[in-house]
Write a structure and sequence with these properties.
With about 290 residues, the protein is α/β, with parallel strands linked by helices. The protein has ten helices and eight strands. Helix 2 (about 45-55) links the parallel strand 1 and strand 2. The relative contact order is 0.12.
């Protein structure tokens, strides 16, 4: 995008946010729950916060179920909630589209709101894929960061927070071992997806992710032909799609190769159960 177009895009987004904030200023408050409010960008982060804090805090998610981080815009109620928040936990990856488009502008309206970058300190080989939470070792790192931030919000609950963190890290380690067992014989194998959301998972378990869609663009006819050939060569049995995106191209590749289409949702809120389920589906898809 040229500089003038980028500037115009920022002005449009900025004007939209100003309108949201003006309308939100007239919205009624709901102060029935005195627990601190923690706001997160995606639902798997809510799982992490709740695992560490249990019922000590309220947690609100910016991007609701079924919405795409590439297109979602915050609602009036969400913007209003930031004024009451004690902490914002962001994904922190520079390529995460919702935060890149909205977060700085929203936070500018609530100066002083503590913000936790959940990815701070992670060594990332894949700097294009913001779906950090699909790898258990990344979530383990995030949980430690969340617990430290929550201690500052709830210093009197330090002991409970630390107990919860230890228990949660144990569950993460067990999940990691379970996934390693599922995928023990699949090292180096390719699995095909529509949207490239599973790169960190693939990296963690020695797999190779092949995506139908790149840079949020549908493949052109030439690219489709190449994908179909690659899928045939790899004897692909399953192509995984994501509920936030149109699966038409993935279905076409599947039809041409005799593969089936299955849905995996990297944004599902029950992170632990969802990752276990997703790993099992990928393992079954790679089984011969």
């Amino acid at each position: 995008m040229r500089g003038a177009e980028r500037g115009e895009g920022r002005r449009i987004v900025g004007a939209a946010l100003v309108g949201v904030l003006l309308a939100a200023a007239c919205a009624p408050r709901h102060d029935n729950d005195a627990r601190p409010l923690v706001v997160v960008s995606v639902a798997p982060q809510r799982f992490v916060v709740r695992a560490v804090a249990d019922e000590l805090v309220r947690v609100e998610v910016m991007i609701p179920p079924g919405a795409s981080p590439h297109t979602y815009e915050p609602t009036l109620a969400q913007v209003r909630a930031l004024e009451e928040a004690a902490l914002y936990v962001k994904v922190g990856h520079p390529k995460f589209p919702f935060e890149a488009a909205w977060l700085d502008q929203m936070l500018a309206e609530v100066p002083g709101l503590p913000v936790l970058d959940a990815s701070a300190g992670l060594q990332l080989d894949d700097r294009e894929d913001p779906h950090l939470w699909v790898a258990p070792h990344h979530v383990d790192h995030m949980a430690v960061q969340v617990e430290a931030a929550l201690e500052r919000v709830l210093p009197a609950e330090r002991a409970a927070l630390r107990r919860n963190l230890v228990e949660f890290r144990g569950r993460i380690a067990e999940l990691d071992r379970a996934i390693e067992r599922m995928l023990g014989d699949a090292e180096g194998a390719k699995f095909f997806v529509f949207h490239p959301a599973w790169g960190h998972f693939a990296e963690a378990y020695g797999l190779r992710q092949v995506a139908v869609e790149h840079e949020h663009k549908e493949p052109d006819p030439h690219e489709l032909v190449e994908l179909i050939e690659r899928a045939r060569e790899a004897r692909v049995r399953v192509i995984f799609v994501q509920p936030q995106f149109d699966p038409t191209s993935a279905k076409l590749v599947a039809e041409e190769t005799g593969a089936r289409v299955e849905t995996l949702d990297p944004l599902a809120e029950d992170w632990e159960a969802n990752l276990r389920r997703s790993a099992r589906a990928i393992a079954q898809g790679l089984a011969r």
